[in-house]
Design brief:
14 helices; mainly alpha
């Protein structure tokens, strides 16, 4: 496993170092990607997993999601551990999504085409909310592929460092542990994803196709790549503080998402042991959601910071991920606030008076 992972990391690192401005994927890399996605499709169909009803859409329909991400990840890691060796998709998929969206005659909220008149806009942001093929929800599936790819690349990086130095540095151990917990936790609680902004609000176009399959695994792992070439003298005290940041971020992130998901499934669910308090019967103001309107973003940002802290402070390169995520989430929060203001009108204004802060309590 270590030898195979190390070879994968060496291949990618070598390609990055001599990468020209335009790179065409080799036939073997295309075959590897197709095989990876085919495995995930088969796993989706045959592995055990919860069947979760999504949120109620505007036309009162609900999508049934099959949550097999955790079992798929465990199976894939086991298969990679057994073998010693293993052998322009986003553009193609996004154009197919555009064409199928334009020709769709469906009136359901999931498949109804949302055409703006600009081909570039529709291609980038997507036309349909939840495009499907043979019962497979593309958006839900694509996120799974990206998150699993992130973990696999990280494990390859860890294997490379073990081969080069005989062990993992403290910094690499912390980074690898934090990301592994984050990804495996994502799949263990995969059903919570069905009530997030990505699933219920974002249409599926090139932005999410490229973002999920390429951007997530290859840029979110930048800290690992950086640690392969740089030595960080991390003190025990710094490591403990790093762990505290991770635990604090994880508690907020997982707790807030859990509260939101439980409330959407059952408005009478208890939040911190008390009946849920709402504004207008729809907007939750209990638990974390009474502290900030997007408290889950705060948890996610703290987690992102904890992934980069093991790299120390000698370079800003490993901090690309938390900086990027900060910009992304503020942009997303602004779009979300605009949509909620339009949807809930006066109720939203009353809600904002009760929950003053957007993401950072006392700051923003």
């Amino acid at each position: 496993m270590a030898e195979a992972g190390s070879k994968v990391a060496s291949m990618i690192l070598s390609a990055v170092e001599r990468c020209p401005l335009l790179v065409y994927p080799s036939s073997s890399m295309c075959l590897l990607l197709v095989g990876y996605l085919s495995f995930l499709i088969i796993a989706e169909l045959v592995l055990p997993g919860k069947r979760i009803l999504g949120v109620i859409l505007p036309d009162n329909t609900r999508i049934v999601y099959r949550c097999t991400g955790f079992s798929s990840t465990i199976l894939l890691l086991a298969l990679l551990g057994i073998g010693a060796k293993f052998l322009g998709l986003p553009l193609t998929v996004s154009w197919w999504l555009l064409a199928s969206g334009y020709t769709s005659k469906s009136k359901t909220s999931s498949l109804k085409p949302h055409v703006t008149g600009s081909i570039l806009h529709d291609w980038w942001f997507g036309v349909q909310l939840n495009p499907q093929l043979l019962g497979l929800d593309f958006k839900f599936f694509w996120i799974r592929a990206g998150m699993m790819g992130w973990l696999l690349i990280n494990l390859s990086i860890a294997a490379q460092q073990i081969q080069l130095h005989g062990n993992l540095s403290l910094s690499m151990l912390l980074y690898q542990s934090f990301v592994a917990i984050y990804v495996l936790d994502y799949f263990w609680f995969e059903e919570y994803m069905t009530s997030t902004w990505d699933i219920i609000a974002e249409k599926f176009g090139f932005m999410l196709v490229f973002g999920d399959l390429v951007w997530i695994p290859f840029t979110f792992s930048i800290q690992g790549w950086w640690l392969l070439k740089h030595t960080v003298d991390l003190t025990v005290f710094a490591a403990i503080l790093n762990i505290i940041v991770f635990i604090f971020g994880y508690t907020i992130f997982r707790g807030s998402n859990r509260q939101k998901h439980l409330f959407k499934k059952d408005p009478k669910a208890l939040i911190w042991g008390q009946p849920a308090k709402t504004i207008g019967g729809k907007l939750l103001v209990s638990g974390y959601w009474g502290i900030a309107r997007h408290c889950n973003y705060l948890g996610d940002l703290l987690l992102a910071l904890s992934f980069s802290l093991p790299c120390g402070t000698i370079s800003m390169v490993p901090y690309f991920y938390p900086i990027y995520l900060l910009v992304l989430l503020i942009w997303r929060e602004r779009r979300d606030e605009a949509k909620c203001k339009e949807k809930y009108k006066g109720v939203w204004m009353e809600y904002c008076k009760v929950v003053h802060w957007r993401i950072f309590p006392g700051i923003y």
